[in-house]
Amino acid sequence: MGEFRMPSLGADMEEGTLVEWAVDVGDQVSKGDIIASVETDKSTIEVEVFESGTVAELLVEPGARVAVGTPMARIGDSSTAGSVGPDSTGRSGESPSETPPVDARPPEAPTAVREEQPAAVVGDGPNRRHASVLRSPLVRQLAERLQVDTSRIRGTGPGGSVTRKDVELASRRTATPATSERSRRVTPRARRRAAEIGVDLSVVVGTGVAGAIREQDVNAAATPRDETRTEAAGGSSADRMRAAIARTMERSNRDIPHYHLSLMVDLEPLDDWLTDRNAGRRPQERALPAAAILRASAMAAASVPELNGEWRDGSAVTSQQVHLGVLVSLRSGGLVAPVLHDAQDRSVDELMAALLDVVERARRGALRSSELAGATITVTNLGDRGVDEVLGVIHPPQLAIVGVGKIASRPMVVDGEVRARKSAVITLGADHRATDGRTGSRFLRRVDALLRDPTLLEPNGR
Amino acid sequence: MTEQPVEVMTDPLPAELDAERAESLFAEMVRIRRFEERCVELYSSADIRGFLHLYIGQEAVATGVMARLTPSDAVVATYRDHGHAIAKGVTMRAAMAEMFGRVEGCSRGRGGSMHLFDAAARVYGGNAIVGGGLPVAGGLALADRLQRRDTVTACFFGEGAVAEGEFHETMNLAALWDLPVLFCCENNQYAMGTALHRSEAATDLAVRAAGYGMAAWAVDGMDVVEVDRAAARAVEMIRGGSGPAFLELHTYRFRAHSMYDPERYRDKEEVELWKHRDPIESFWTRVAAAGLLDDADRVRVEAEVADEVDDAVEFARGGTLEPLEELTRWVYSDGSSALEVDR
Question: Strand A71-76 to strand A65-67: parallel, antiparallel, or no bridges (unpaired)?
């Protein structure tokens, strides 16, 4: 019985977080197979197993952070762990008189035929069929994807096991022109991205060649963790959402050195402007200050693109488009952040309509997954919860978050006199790796300028 | 675009490649591969610390070039130096003990993976600095030339070194002074994570080397037969006194740059494509098809190598750590002869 332990992935690594298992209990693995993804302080890395055998037990749950050297899985010796039985597809199904598995493995577990029992399996006659030993889950998946019947392959790996190369060669020999619908091709980038942001690939629709799932498909399918499909997955949705928020915030606080800036913005001009505009409109057509502030934020983000985008692989990747994440708190607790795509091109009225729409649907749980992905900057408005100032926490991998406080009449000095003015504190939390306060202040000053002269918010006003 | 592997090798094996030589080339590549595979495990289990850059995929280069060097020829390598050291005659025991940081290691455990030195084997080290070995090789060759020794210095470096000033300076001086250097540029396409075409305007490195006035050509570095052939030709020229030569060896590393990196700079498909050209497997296929070696030979070689690796690990584990009182030894002069080393 061997063990898979948390590997040392660098001399400075003391512990790592299991992101996901690449195997299940009962899977055959062979030395060199990818068994799990592990997140270190630097990156997420697929790690290999140095044992060959059957995965007998997974000792660590995804998400757990454990020290280097901690046993994470037990790998049973194929010859004793009882992973003997017919291939689940019945391809090599004559293996008969074996005693059933002795350890507590789920009944569907045996997926490979142990070649050490050749007499029972294949016989020595001229019509001998090769018992394909599929030790590796990856090979098995590859075979499935390439529609290769492994029972017809002569394995060249250890003990006659079928290797990845065998499958690929067999696939090329019998190259079928079209890829079957069942097959799920996933680009490595997409797989990585899915692992990073926690997307279940089985629900992703691929748009690549032959339906391959690409990175952008994963992004499109990304829900900020499990917020929108919780019931189906079981467990308390509130707990799951809390856990997802916890992970995201933990990551943000760990990885992102924030700086915060704030500016008190005189909203009296905006108030006047909106009052004029809304006069004569039906209530549902009226624009609220929130929409104008979203508009100003989107325009400011477009003019200070250093704050608009993602932190990726050690550098900021900025975006021309402003995809505005809007934090919506749910009555049941928790948050979702629907995204208003291409907000830089949307008018105040369009943003108002979009905002009402997503808030309403967010609270019904009716957001599409594509509406939850791809934000380049987020706005959080806690003003309607009565607080003066919001010092936001950035949603990774974004670069900044805008906070809007309560709009209230406050004493402000205007033309040398103290007057009661409608005002709000607008804040910016930004990633100090990507930008400095100078850049952040440009953003806030731009927001301020736009809100002081709201005509600039109109499409022709720029 | 990064380079794609050439799919098929159809060249017949050279007539002079007999079974013995075939086995020798094969076994050398297997030794390097198995040594490093064990290093991966030992690194994961934290027995080996520090950095570890694996040569897996590139074994044909060191094997093919070393096959044409004599024991008195010198080698200067990179931080990806296990293959060069082993192929040039550093014992697996000494190399593994060095990995473990033991006094019995070839650099007394002070160098680790990146600094395998062995004066007896004339291995003048790995070098942690990209391009750092080039001037060293130039100096060794200058000494050999001034002392009229008939030796060649093989200098291995990656294509990333071509961006370094030392590369250009050494190339120029070597050509100017007719130094007996065999420049072996192992073009594995990525300088850490930077594809060659992203950093260099002219990516045909042999052509650039020729611009310094030396013989230079490109070689399929995944084919040990080709490397062997090219090295034979180059070494013969250099020994004949025609000055330095340059080989651009197109190769590919199958594993991460260092022990682990997320490899976001290349697709797994690309790696898998290159693995079809695994220097060990493709050579095996050819020599087996030619009837030079058979399965029994392979089993025997693998068993011998496995024993050798096991022995090296056992040796390294049983080695001694340098006592603390020696911490500053050989850091500053203690007044005795600087050349006096108690090995």
Answer: unpaired
Q: Cis before residue A411, ω within 30 degrees of 0?
A: no
Provide the residue type at A461 as one letter: G
The total number of structural domains that make up chain B: 1
Query: Does some domain include residue B321?
Result: no
* A313-360 pLDDT, tens digit each: 889 999 999 999 999 887 777 788 889 999 999 999 999 999 988 888
Using alpha carbons, select from A182, A119, A131, A145 the residue that is nearest to residue A28: A131
Could you tell me the CATH number of the domain that includes residue B276? 3.40.50.970
- A257-457 has CATH 3.40.190.10 classification: no
pLDDT value for A136:
57
The b-or-e profile of A407-418 (16+ CB within 10 A means b, else e) is beebebeeeeee
- Residue A57 contacts B where some CB pair is shorter than 8 Å: no
Which band of pLDDT confidence, cut at 50, 70 and 90, is reported for residue A384?
Answer: confident
CATH class of segment(s) A1-88: mainly beta
Q: List B residues 240-259 in contact with A (Cβ-Cβ < 8 A).
A: 258-259
Residue A118 parent element (H or E)? helix A118-121
**Residue B6: pLDDT band with limits 50, 70, 90:** low
pLDDT band at A168 (very low <50, low <70, confident <90, very high): confident
Exposed, middle or buried: residue A449 (CB in 10 Å: 0-12, 13-18, 19+)? middle
User: Would you say residue A109 has pLDDT above 80?
Assistant: no
Range of the domain at B290: 19-313
Q: How far is CA A339 from CA A200, A351, A372, A374, B45, in A?
A: 20, 11, 6, 7, 44
Instruction: Give the integer Cα–Cα distance in Å for A213 and A258.
Output: 34
How close, in Å, is residue B41 to chain A by CA atoms?
A: 7
- As for the ipTM of the complex, it is 0.80
Distances (CA, A) of B176 to A66, B124, B170: 58, 23, 10
Residues 6 or more apart whose CB falls under 8 angstroms from that of A150 comprise: A91, A132, A134, A139, A140, A143, A162, A167
- The verdict on residue B100 lying in a domain is yes
Distant-in-sequence, close-in-space partners of A169: CB < 8 Å, separation ≥ 6: none
Q: Which amino acid, residue B122?
A: R
Q: Alpha-carbon Rg of chain B, whole angstroms?
A: 20
A8 and chain B: CB distance < 8 Å anywhere? Answer: yes
What's the pLDDT at B10?
54
Whether this prediction's pTM lies above 0.90 is answered by no
The domain segmentation of chain A, as residue ranges, is 1-88, 94-183, 257-457
In a domain? residue B342: no
Q: A69 vs B46: CB contact, 8 Å cut-off?
A: yes
Name the DSSP class of B343.
-
In a domain? residue B80:
yes
Residues 108-137 of A with CB under 8 A from B: none
Nearest to A8 among B46, B264, B268 (CB): B46
